[in-house]
Amino acid sequence: LMTIHNIAFLGQFPPSLLDELGLSTDLFHPDGIEFYGSVSLLKAGLISADWITTVSPRYARELETPELGAGLDGLLRARSDRLVGILNGADYSQWDPMHDPMIPARYGPDQLAGKRECKAAVQRALGLPVEAHVPLTVAVSRLTDQKGFDQAAVVLEGMLRRRKPQLQMAILGTGDAVLEARLLELAARFPQAMAVRIGYDERLAHQLYAAADLYLMPSRYEPCGLGQLYALRYGAPPIVRATGGLDDTVVDGETGFKFEPFTAAALERAWLRALSTYRDETAFQALQQRSMAQDFSWGRSAERYRELYLSHAEE
Fold it and tell me: Exposed, middle or buried, 292 (CB in 10 Å: 0-12/13-18/19+)?
């Protein structure tokens, strides 16, 4: 069984690799391991595996399209009867606000007071005004175009410049230098509403999930994603693009907010819907509780893998 996480990372090598590995040149052709003049060990795996899995059902379907198949979509369509999407799982022994030792206060679906404490602590730590009524949107991510932060920056600038609706934004991540600089510049222009920390800090990541009212994940494509799974558990309804595992794990209006076309306008509409729901305290608390009730632990996913291995053993 071979699992594809993100097919965009193809791992291509020059033809000389065949000699280094002692492989026959007979393999170097379009129906073999040749890929646009290179040797592709990923393609070799896809050809020879008994089963191919990827990390969400929708991403499995998306891999069969020219848009997201990275040039291997034809091969994956040919092997579609052996391609299965199984969701990643979250490790709730590490990511659960009821037991998380890294956050200032513990909380659960029926006792959300601790979440308010976590929000105030993060606002103080990041130099944001400690205002309980202002919705705090958080992102913990690689800062790249693939993750959608080029579009997020456009939307953020517009909302912060208009100062309506009121919001705060906190971002932790690292990635493209130009995008990092753009987000840092926005934070410098709007220090009362936005904070950016470049890098990765495990403790701060936990604290941000616990503090967040909303979680932003506007990816161009997303094989599965773990951020939205953590956000659901921590009662931070995610704002996501309906792609890959994001589409499989977030129910629009029930556990979060989704948008479909990858445009700044579509993202802004979803974000504004989320902020509008936040202003209805009863509706938003119900949304948080539904989010926290979701179970994306490894148990179900592990059982799917087990079934797949057993099905092959019986063939």
Answer: buried
